[in-house]
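By way of example, what follows is a protein record of this kind.
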Amino acid sequence: MKQPSGGVSATPDLKHFVAAEAELAHLRQEHGLPQEKHGRLWHLLDRVLLHRQQRQKRLCNKATYLKLCLLGIVGAHRFYEGRWGLGLLYLATCWSGFSVAMTIIDAMVVIPMKGDEQGNVML
């Protein structure tokens, strides 16, 4: 991939964005410009997105995952995938329509995925 004259890739990822934000904050401090104040929610969102980009994907059997989507109201497919935090979120919100809606989206993402010879997909 050809790089622009600045030496930065044409398709920066989240790590590059976070590094650029840190460099901008340093330059603002160095030149006496006021710092931008971001709230806790902004920093939490940054950490969540960075974690999502760096998380390890796991091999899961596609047929088993889709069968567990039928129990999606309690997050069974997320526990099977090894994502305990999301499984607990689905379980905590099972009284609302959130977990059902998210399970439908999860199934729609997995259905078109091509599995390997054992039927496993990377999630």
About this structure: The chain has a mean pLDDT of 85.
